[in-house]
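Batch manifest, entry 17 of 40.
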Amino acid sequence: MTEEHVILVDEDNQPIGTAPKAKVHHANTPLHRAFSCFVFNSRGELLLQQRAHHKVTWPGIWSNSCCGHPLPDEIYEDAVQRRLEEELGMTQVALQLALPDYRYRAEMLGVVENEFCPVWVGLSDATPKPNPDEVAAVQTRPWAEFLSGVIAKADPFYQALSPWCRAETRLLTEGDALGRFLREHGLAS
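Output type: structure tokens
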């Protein structure tokens, strides 16, 4: 298996090179491309994952359905589908780009995330088959309940979600991309 590389970018999200994924996340993580995905089922429930406990970034933390990095010369949608299959054993998820310009920086245990991270939403009724190298556990929560929990910040579960998941959840409610996606799939009125 070849070493996976991430795409390094400048402040305008223009590629400036690549770096090995295994060596890019540290205290001075360079700005690079990533993506995030929120997968819903036909009951309007959001799939959440607990990151594997041995991961370098945010080990054991609950987060949205899937995150990852596009490979050099890989388009985002293909990267999202690839990681959904690698992490959760899910294929052919109906995807839509919801937040094309999301960018964040976060730190945990001395490791920094520094990413341009477009957010995708998806629909699938497939049963996840978590890859233990990537995912410790999965669960679903009704979207309205999840959203209320993130906004209220009262429940320790919601306080402990990954910082990007909390921020992306709030941003998804500000525009109409998520609402449009849910309506198109009969998941919202």
